[in-house]
Amino acid sequence: MIFLKKNYFVIFLILIHFNCLKAKRSIYDILSTQGSNLQILSVTLSNLNAPPTLSYTGSPFSILVGVAMTRISATITGTIASCISSPALPTGLTLESSTCAITGTPTTVQSTSNYNITASNSSGSRTASISIAVTPNNNIATQNIATSWIQRTLPVTSSWKSITFGNGLFVAVAAGTGTTNIAVVSSDGINWSQGTLPGLTTLDWESVAYGNGVFVTVSSNGSAVRAATSPDGINWIARTIPNQNWKSVTFANGTFVAVAGNATSATSTDGIIWVTSFSLFNTVTWNSVAYGNGVFVALADNGNSRSATSTDAINWTTRINLTAPSGWTSVAFGNGVFVGVGSGISRATLSTDNGITWTQSNVNTGTSTNCVTFGNGIFLILRGSVPNPSQLAATSPDGNNWTNVNLPNSQQWQSAAFGNGIFVAVGGYLAPTNIIASSP
């Protein structure tokens, strides 16, 4: 820069070597000449937009399956715009996008594996490597999980359709008849509080999931509101999502994924901004979606026993190799396999190759299986319909060999979730109830 003033001129030569991969603060020399005098000045400039630094203390980490883990916090310098893991964290664990902290309840035993956690902002990224092992839970108190059930009571009667666990809380939502646009929340499956979902009319809140520090639920009807988010399950905010018949939402690999009818799926990192895809087969209703082994798998409730797979939940490949034409209603992943169940049948279907091919297993629970979930190393199936309520459920370690168990009462059991060492099951769809069950 050259400035002229009377008979003098000053030349400032700023020699700056930008290196964003070094310290945030660098010392630069400024050379000044005034007449025949040369001066060298030193100044310190701050690089306010440097990439973040990222590190973890305590690796390798060993956590128990089925038990809410102690939060793994990251040490960070600078700002973070996003945080991702490669490969995806163990099923049930969440990587918080704004803090790179790891939380959750692991649902599947696995040997020690390495994970590359990358924090990014507009100036670049940093990666830290950690190791995580999920070990069996040999605590005697957990050995009766899903075999011995206790009846519990909710503060309100409704048609409970879906339940999830996250951030130390069970959250259930309702659809159909009874008190509508409500949610219930509990930390122990025994004591419950009531929350209010948005909507001026009766909405069928079909599914709820947790991830990135937020609960997300989707509805199959409603003209203005078909999605909502909440930090605690009590206070909910309406969100914009295309008006589709949304049937299921899950969270995995840093992303919420919802599926519906008319070939539609949608993805979101926060439950607020959704990106829609139309690559699913378009003459069926996609009823359920799950994630495992780096793949999303969706099942449809009619039409040639269809399933679909995707690595990104945007581009889907249709599969038609399920073992029997049926209204497949639910799919879950655990112990390396996907398991699906359907209405009107007493069978389950399982896939060991990430949803490409499927084989049949017999489940002697009657004619309608509504839900399959996985936790603490076992699959749990629930059943029951309006004309044929049931208290019969079934458990399996592998999706192939099943053992019947009795729930505390007969109803149309719809959904179950595992967390804090227990399963909690809800139901009453089209037959409102305030009775649920927990095990143990």
Major sheet, described briefly? 7 strands, antiparallel
Structural class: mainly beta
CATH topology of the largest domain: Methylamine Dehydrogenase, Chain H
Give a count of the beta strands, DSSP E runs of length 2 or more: 39
Choose one word for the global shape.
globular
Residue windows where pLDDT falls under 50 for at least 5 positions: 1-36, 40-47
Helix residue percentage: under 10%
Strand percentage lies at: over 45%
Oligomeric status: single chain
Mean pLDDT, nearest integer?
82
Which SSEs are present, and which pair or pack?
Layout: E1 2-5, E2 8-15, E3 25-34, E4 37-46, E5 53-55, E6 61-64, E7 75-77, E8 82-86, E9 93-95, E10 102-104, E11 110-121, E12 124-135, E13 150-166, E14 169-178, E15 182-186, E16 193-196, E17 205-211, E18 214-219, E19 227-230, E20 237-239, E21 248-252, E22 255-259, E23 265-268, E24 275-277, E25 286-292, E26 295-300, E27 307-310, E28 317-319, E29 327-334, E30 337-343, E31 347-351, E32 359-362, E33 369-375, E34 378-383, E35 390-396, E36 403-411, E37 413-419, E38 422-427, E39 433-439
Parallel strand pairs: 6-12
Antiparallel strand pairs: 1-2, 2-3, 3-4, 5-7, 8-11, 9-10, 11-12, 13-14, 13-39, 14-15, 15-16, 17-18, 18-19, 19-20, 21-22, 22-23, 23-24, 25-26, 26-27, 27-28, 29-30, 30-31, 31-32, 33-34, 34-35, 35-36, 37-38, 38-39
Looking at this protein, list some descriptive labels.
mainly beta; Immunoglobulin-like; Methylamine Dehydrogenase, Chain H; seven-stranded antiparallel sheet; four-stranded antiparallel sheet; 55% strand; disordered N terminus
